[in-house]
Amino acid sequence: MIRDAWLLSSALRDDSTTAQLQHWHKELELWEICRARTELETRLAELESRGNKLTQSLEEDKTCPSFHTDELWLKAIPQNHTLARAENEIAGGLVNDSESTDYGSMP
């Protein structure tokens, strides 16, 4: 009987310890979620601020003609390039001479 009482007492302590550990684990997880949320909100605020600045800058630039149109890029490329090479340079890539197709000289 004493042995059974001791086992019951031990089991109750183990259950209490388990419950406390589970509670602490939940608190820690909640704290980590709150911290991650705060970090995300901070990053979102930074991105929104940067987006607003870029939008404002683009609106101010509307009065100036944009240099980055396809037509202006094509005019800036030397006459001896093939059309395939010019199109690829606009896209930011490189074309081997053996891969390019000569469509005539550029305008």
Run of helices and strands: HHH
Low-confidence stretches: 95-107
Give me the count of strands.
0
User: Largest sheet, if any?
Assistant: none
Domain tally: 2
Number of helical segments?
Answer: 3
Output the radius of gyration: 34 Å
Explain how this protein is built.
This protein has two domains: 1-64; 65-102, no CATH class. Residues 95-107 have low confidence and may be disordered. The longest helix has 60 residues, at 2-61. It has helices at residues 2-61, 70-76, 83-91. By secondary structure, the chain is mainly α. It is rod-shaped, with a radius of gyration of 34 Å.
Protein traits:
107 residues, mainly alpha, disordered C terminus
What is the fold's blueprint, element by element?
Layout: H1 2-61, H2 70-76, H3 83-91
Short structural description:
The chain is built from 3 helices and no strands.
